[in-house]
Amino acid sequence: MREGHEGTGPGAITPDGCAVELYTRLAAGGEPDIIEAAVPAGAHILELGCGVGRMTHPLLERGFRVTAVDESAEMLARVRGARTIRSTIEGLDLGEKFDVVMLASFLVNTGDTEVRRGMLRTCAAHVGDGGCVLIQREGADYHTNVPRERVDPSGYTVRIASVEPVGDGVNSVLAEYEFPDAAWTQTFLARPLTQEQFEDALAEGGLEVAEYLTEDGIWVRAVPTA
After folding, report:
1. Which residue of 6, 27, 123, 130 could cross-link 187, Cys pair, CB 3.0 to 4.6 Å?
2. pTM over 0.90
């Protein structure tokens, strides 16, 4: 298990604390709609950190081509219909360019600054001319509006139970997931980034914001700097 990361509950747990069975149950929600509205129809998307295909599968259904990357073989085994590649994001070098590179699931807020830098370098290196990078970042109150929970329409509860500082601007976050028949927890390290810090991080990786796609600023379309 990666330092500072832990998961509990039934089934396989990945090094960053994600439970494979849990992620097969989580709904994609409105995220595929946001993505579809932001990129050309039929685009080839490089999805970094695809997990079990929670967003991969809806994107395929909408006519996109997807190359799905994850470091977990157990996660990738659940992905259907996409080309899959097992790799860390920061270590990926396909020598290819894509219409869209996607870094979702708040991965840009990883607690490890060097990993974040590597992820953004990977994004910049794989986006083609005229293409874009879609990034999902934490909302402004992610680390302060705690505890909080939401009940998904399908009947499960997601709870951010606690956020504890662990030094160097990094917090340890405890998330809880409750289903009628099972429960999981995930503990992970995350670094809050103000909008300015986020944009500085992009610039360091050779990217800049083209557009904030949602009012809350969580979804962003970025492009390589000129």
Report:
1. 6
2. yes
